[in-house]
Amino acid sequence: MQYFTEIDPFERLPFGYRCRRCGNQASHLFAQMSCAVCQGKHPYCRSCIEMGRVSTCEALYIWTGPAPNWPPVLEACKWKGQLTKAQQHASKQLVKAVREKKELLIWAVCGSGKTEMVFEGIGHALEQGLRVCLATPRVDVVRELLPRFRAAFPTIPISALYGGSTDQTSASPFVLATTHQLLRYARAFDVLVIDEIDSFPFHKSKTLPYAAKRAAKQSSTTIYLTATPRKSLKRKLERNVLDVVFVPNRFHGHPLPVPSMVMCWDLRKTLEKLPKAFRRWIRTRENRDRQLLIFVSTIRLAEDVKAKLEEVGRSKQNVAAVYSTDPERESKVQKFRNRELTVLVTTTILERGVTFPSVDVAVLDAGHDVFDEEALVQIAGRAGRSSKDPDGEVIFFHNGRTEAMVKAISSIRKMNKRGGFS
Hints:
The protein has 422 residues and is α/β, with parallel strands linked by helices. It is 29% helix and 23% strand. The strands form 5 sheets. The protein has a 7-stranded parallel β-sheet. Helix 1 runs parallel beside helix 2 and helix 10 packs across helix 11. Pfam families: Helicase_C, ResIII.
């Protein structure tokens, strides 16, 4: 234990506490408990309780031993694919940010090939003996990225950390993790890449940005990847305190599909029974060979729509519903990817980070509050991901246009214009 130092889990503030593990200061997220050890009462932090209870009677430990040595690797990246000019520019800027230990935002449209863009920069870091973490808010994204990075870096030990992961070995030079797992680290990474930084729960959390900042070494590189930066990042750009690289084109050179809005007067009354306009579109889609990805606002609605589609299609084998608490979530997504399913009904958990080569996309009740501008842009980005099928229909079914819908379509058109499309 000589390499670990005991610290008080809470910092005293004038009007409460700060949890030293998750950074929580909100008084309503602290509670009192009776202690079996000292027979007294102690506050404990409810914000990070899923990782084990932290109270004033139990110490936290931080590593204060020698910093781990990660040996430099020759030719860490074995990926031999070709990048577009825009991808190459982003890749070179990332390498520069690693060398100069700076922050960098890569603002790249959905389907631009962000994963391939970071290969060179990560490879450069590993070749210098630096430790790298790529963190993302969504479990599905970690699962999808792991085989791709293992193929690109076959000689590098890679840990994949997320809730339910069987990989418990975090002592590797390259870590893939959900952003929640960053709570376990302090001053651990020379290069921290945060993918989908605008995604829930990261952008609505105070804890996760705190964890990300603490997980990086004091002298380090932080890379932000997103297609839809939130206002906080845009303000940094306006103040010129954050470097940015734009990638306005998809890797296959085709424009982003622009969503259409379809009015459904009877939407709320017929959601569970499927609105007439939605049924008509399913029958008359331009390319019936494409799979169908349907986004809905709630878990209950996902199951209701799935049941109605099974009834209408008289087939239970080609339709599935998936959501955050679904125990078969991973297998259903894989079946859809393998084209074993024709239709997948989902909540916003699949709005980003997953790639299906040939899908049409529908959003039922696109005016619901859960579908903000960023979510709708990401959802639209699920279509047209393959060079073999670079189009795909995207339809917003609604009973009244919302600002989010209008702004999402405007944002997509602006990116297409920036990419050279009229």
